[in-house]
Amino acid sequence: MTSETPVKSTSVPGSPSASAGTSPGPSEAEVVAPPTTTPTVDTSGPSGDEVVPPPTTNTSGPSEAEDVPPQTTNINVAEATLLEADEVEEQENVLSDGDSGVGSFQSSTASLQEELIKQRKEHGRSYKGYLEAKYLLPMDEQELERLELQNHLVWLTLDKRLYHSPVENFNRVLDVGCGTGQWTIEFADQYPGTEVIGVDLAPVQPNAIPPNLVFEVDDLEQPWTFSKKFDFIHTEAMVGALQDWPKYFRQSFEFLEPGGYLELHDVDFAVRCDDGTLPDDSAVVKWHEYMDQAADKMGFPLHIVLEFPKLMQEAGYTDISVEQIKWPMNTWPKDKKYKELGYFASENFRWGCESMSLALLTRGLGWSVDEVRVFMALLRKDFANRQLHGYWNFYVIHGRKPENVA
Fold first, then answer.
1. What range does the domain containing 162 cover?
2. Which of 42, 55, 306, 371 might form a disulfide with 46, Cβ 3.0–4.6 angstroms?
3. What segment(s) does the record annotate as region Disordered (predicted)?
């Protein structure tokens, strides 16, 4: 087990506990728990009757079950590397060859059944989705561009690979929650003889796609209706999107061919720190606490990735592999690979924190849009502060359906 000290996210049972830090960061006057009696807006931080201040932090440290998914039968866990901070002022380019060419996504709505699509406007952002627009993130051009950047970050995290499962032959592949379709298109290009299906709540994929690829609009929390099974099912960044994960693992298991693999790429939404440089009263720590409270109220567990191995095992999967990789909060690590991951993780969260927060904090905790945006300004300062050595744990998890199960 690594020596990491996660910072507490208060509302979710089993979430990691906090560790006090000493480095500079927003003071208590800058980032405070919203008052419980005064409805007025406090420009130093969010306010409102609906928000309950987080309970007193527990500095006793996490249990092993809180740090990494529990190691049980047929589950192989590879824990994350302990990182050393880079104390040298940054001057060199942290990007590897080719990264500077990451471009913006030019959105093009696919020709799908538009009558099934509902779109609602909240706070100047568009939320598109099949049925009742249940997705918590907006689906406008700004968010689509962020998703492209996030996909690049995951690709770098996987050492520039699309998957880690030991699959040899692909006949039929499903991408669950395909978003802009970037992973799906790249996979279909790489395996032109494979039938590839990408499914999402919103029709935001491009029209120009490989001939072996089909995009569909559907809610895969409903009963699956595919006519044939798959050799490989891919799921990426769906924490906060799906609510009934046990059902998802049961359905994915049912629709895999014997010997087929399910692979998931996702992050545990708990900011962590190994060296005490992340203060409990910093904006980034408070943000995770508020997001946990809101997500808990709305039924979107943000730490469910820690339960994936157990849920997969209960669904029938075997040979489950768990790889834990750190996403630094910015470019603070000395190691070049993690410095680069930190660059893109910082861009992803600085760019996307408002998208991630608006629906949860306004719908779940009753904040005003102004309160959210004032708090986002403080949060972005933390993301850019290289003296704060925070990180998130990203997980690459895959499991196999046994050959003797139909």
1. 5-13+39-48+64-84+92-101+114-400
2. 371
3. 1-71
168 occurs within a structural domain: yes
> So what's the pLDDT on residue 92?
53
Nearest-angstrom CA–CA distance, 378 and 226: 46
pLDDT at 5: 44
CATH number at residue 207: 3.40.50.150
Is the whole model's pTM more than 0.70, yes or no?
Answer: yes
Rounded Cα–Cα distance for residues 283 and 272 (Å) = 14
Q: Which residues contact 380 (CB under 8 A, 6 or more apart)?
A: 350, 353
Instruction: Confirm whether 287 is domain-assigned.
Output: yes
Question: Tens digits of per-residue pLDDT, 253-304?
Answer: 999 999 999 999 999 999 999 999 999 999 999 999 999 999 999 888 899 9
Task: Report residue 152: phi and psi, to 5°.
Answer: -65, -40
Number of domains observed in the structure of the chain: 1
